[in-house]
Amino acid sequence: MKTEILIPNQEPIPAERTSLPEKPGALRGEVWLTIQTIHAQRLFHGRVATTDKPTIVGLVGFANRLRVIWQGARHDDPYADWWLIKIHDAIETAGDVIRGNQLDLEKRLEQMDAMAIDIAASRRPCRVPLKFANPYAYRGAKLLTEFDKLVCMALTVRHIGLLDSQACEDILKASARKIRSIFMIPQSYRLLKINREQVKQATGRSHEARQSMGEVPGDVLSGKRQAPLVPRKVTFPAGFSGNLQLRPSDSVSDTNSSTDQNDDG
Predict the structure, then answer these.
(1) Are 120 and 75 in contact (CB under 8 A)?
(2) In angstroms, rounded to a whole number, what is the distance separating the alpha carbons of residues 142 and 147?
(3) Prediction pTM value
(4) Which residue ranges of the chain lie beneath pLDDT 70?
(5) Short-list 176, 221, 175, 170, CA closest to 194
(6) 263 and 23 in contact (C-beta within 8 Å)?
(7) Residue 93 three-state SS
(8) What residues are paired with 56 via a beta bridge?
(9) DSSP helix/strand/coil, 126
(10) N-to-C CA span, the chain
(11) Could you give the 3-state DSSP secondary structure of residue 31?
(12) 146 in Cβ contact with 34 (< 8 Å)
């Protein structure tokens, strides 16, 4: 008698994995700023000082100097944290003013409900690539686009006779002044390679920091109050941070931009 032995089908045993799967590459993206008006373009570039005219810091210089503050905050400099709070609050305040002006102009346009009015726009807008290293530089760029929109609205309202020339000029000058004052804030920060503990203990260059930048508010020094957008803190072995030299770049683009990293910066 023959006995038939049935062997069940089995999946082939995969070879043992000898290496980890390849990680995804770095995340990369592009950000472009579209500029409609000369007014906004001037605020983007700023102005180099001449014998009879002072320097005007534009978005380029603002973003460049912000790199230094961002690095200071990363290394737990409470003065850098304080300056980020100042910048955040100033951007919020200026944004409220600009948006308030926009609403006022929109109400004027509503008076012409029997007419279809298109807001003026450039036939050849300027597109500029942005490669900033921290979020507040992009917040500054966003504020600039809101001002650009305000300029287009104000010139349109003036053109159709709902706003006189002086009132139009006053609105645009006041709004531009708000933005320029924001772009100046980082210029008063000094990177002295100090940290929170040194300021609390009055050691290192904390005395020099107090003389040049004032007394850090208590809630900022304790870490209780911070700007909504701050970098992750990093620490180094004793003696290492003293060798760091951070200087602002001369270019709008930053090769160390956070968009080139596959993490949250």
Answers:
(1) no
(2) 9
(3) 0.79
(4) 1-18, 235-265
(5) 221
(6) no
(7) helix
(8) 47
(9) strand
(10) 76
(11) strand
(12) no
Paired tokens of 228: 């909504």
Predicted pLDDT at 18: 63
Q: Which residue has the tokens 């605020």?
A: 43
**Which amino acid is it at 154?**
A
Q: How far is CA 23 from the centre of its chain?
A: 29
Under the phi-then-psi rule, with left for phi > 0, alpha for psi from -120 to 50, and beta for the rest, what region is 179? alpha
C-alpha span between 38 and 220 (Å, rounded): 39
Distance CA 178, CA 13 (A): 69
Structural contact between residues 41 and 126, judged by C-beta atoms closer than 8 angstroms: yes
The pLDDT, as a whole number, for residue 28 is 85
Report pLDDT for 253. 47
d(CA 21, CA 91): 44
Q: What is the pLDDT of residues 215-238, one digit of tens each?
A: 999 999 999 999 999 999 876 555
Q: Hey, what are 249's tokens? A: 């770049």
**Residue-level pLDDT at 67:** 95
Burial class (CB in 10 A: 0-12, 13-18, 19+), 209: buried
Phi first, then psi, for residue 130 (nearest 5°) are -115, 130
Give the separation between CA 110 and CA 146, rounded to whole angstroms.
20
* Block residue for tokens 């978005």: 59
